[in-house]
Amino acid sequence: MKFLATIGRSVLGLLAAIGRVALFAVETISHLFRPPWYPREFGAALMQIGYFSLPVVGLTTIFTGGALALQIYAGGARFSAEAVVPQIVAIGMVRELGPVLVGLMIAARVTSSIAAEIATMKVTEQIDALVTLSTNPMKYLTLPRVLAATLVMPILVAVGDTIGIMGGYLVGTGRLGFNPGTYLTNTIDFLEWLDIVSSLSKGAVFGFLAALMGCYFGMGSARGAAGVGAATKGAVVAASVLILAANFILTELFFAA
Amino acid sequence: MIELRGIEKSFGPKNVLRGVDLTIPKGESMVIIGGSGTGKSVTLKCVLGLITPDKGEILVDGQDVTKLRQGSSERDAFLARFGMLFQGGALFDSLTVWQNVAFRLLRGTMKKTKAEAREIAIEKLRRVGLTPDVADLYPSELSGGMQKRVGLARAIAAEPEIIFFDEPTTGLDPIMSGVINELIREIVVEMGATAMTITHDMTSVRAIADKVAMIHGGKVRWTGPISQMDNSGDPYLTQFITGSADGPIESVR
Ligand SMILES: Nc1ncnc2c1ncn2[C@@H]1O[C@H](COP(=O)(O)OP(=O)(O)O)[C@@H](O)[C@H]1O
Ligand SMILES: [Mg+2]
């Protein structure tokens, strides 16, 4: 019986948490339509989340694209299908790996820093200070970050997809003996608009989730240094899990026959 | 005029405030004393709506401010009349010192030009004993006492009608404490502001208080004009102001 009660309590806790996150998301979005807005904060968030994430996005995707080419070549060789490397790399990167890898890197890089920053502000009473200075923390801190991440992630994903395909191309032409011209034509001919649209839409959703989790856990931080640590950890775990779950749902929506 | 009536607040099992009643007439300087952890900061935060009390009402000029909705225009108007110095300074560490001080003047309804805002910030910094060359530093580059004074400058920058100071002189040297005490006195006298100050420093109490309230056990234990503080006949208050280890207040809490 005790065992059942524990399960029941965890399920109720989870449902309550989902409800709180949903309310937080709705409140964040509602501030998009109500002034005042803080364009300067938005600009800073764009730089932080977008521009400064480019190196990590490039590095992650180029290696993955290269490894993907090697794997598909080796796997395809078993039934003489080596020739499909360009097509499968393109599909794999654009539909799945590009958005997911970039999403997870953003969860690691951006969610953690947003959560730690906001939690520290909360713990040191800076959030209270904002309120006493007639500034709504949801408008000043949350909305700019969530909006910037949602808008800039499709661009990061586009960059990641391209660099990932480049990684496959470099390995394919350099190590596996593909003709450069044929490799590129095969890639471009094979990709469809839906692939690209799904990739960028996933990016937007993942960006929204990553920044939202950072802000949500940061704002809810408990007191003290341990509170900041727990908020950061919780934010990164929640963002990663939500990104993977959302990825499944979006793939289902876009590609289920 | 600020009136607190029967304010109660618990955090989990901990009953911090158990019915605080307090009245601060307009233009007077009320000083709140009491041991650490007795809920003095919580009391101020209840008035500002940063913490919602479990019970009781808080009237500011007759209006119950605990009923104001977050983000409503009434609440914005209410907050615009306030200045608050937080116990830890609570400076924004992503902004420079002058941008912290001029925060209110750089955005929202009180927006001024950048040059004007900076000029006001530097003037306020001077009033708290800081030279203009700290204006472009970041809070992390300042000592704790300097941060406190920047926080003070920020609290008074928009010339509020009601000012709360949470331990304004803690961590300052005696001379600087004197400067800050005088400043608080001036703000009340010159600007006619209503002030509520939390302090442990008995020199400060004597320098700035019109009235004193002592919080103990979640309630206002004693309140009265400063002139009656020394012969109140209350053993708790007497022990507190003499700083004696013997008396009704336990030294292990
Ligand atoms: N946000 C909070 N969550 C939980 N406990 C709190 C919170 N704020 C204050 N407390 C607790 O309330 C008590 C009174 O705190 P405070 O008002 O800061 O004391 P002080 O009189 O020294 O200013 C303390 O025991 C503190 O731990
Ligand atoms: Mg305190």
UniProtKB/TrEMBL annotation, chain A:
Transmembrane feature ranges: 49-70, 146-171, 203-222, 234-256
Keyword Transmembrane: yes
UniProt-recorded Gene Ontology molecular function terms: phospholipid transporter activity
Pfam families tied to this protein: MlaE
Top-level taxon in the UniProt lineage: Bacteria
One Gene Ontology term, aspect cellular component: ATP-binding cassette (ABC) transporter complex
Keyword RNA-binding annotated: no
Identification of the protein by name: ABC transporter permease
From TrEMBL, chain B:
GO molecular function: ATP binding; ATP hydrolysis activity
Keyword Transport found: yes
CDD domains: ABC_Org_Solvent_Resistant (cd03261)
Keywords of the record: ATP-binding, Nucleotide-binding, Transport
InterPro entries: AAA+_ATPase, ABC_transporter-like_ATP-bd, ABC_transporter-like_CS, P-loop_NTPase
UniProt cross-references to SUPFAM superfamilies, sorted A to Z: P-loop containing nucleoside triphosphate hydrolases
Residue ranges of domain ABC transporter in the record: 2-242
Transmembrane segments: none
Keyword Ribosomal protein attached: no
Name of this chain's protein: ATP-binding cassette domain-containing protein
Protein's organism: Kangsaoukella pontilimi
Lineage: Bacteria, Pseudomonadati, Pseudomonadota, Alphaproteobacteria, Rhodobacterales
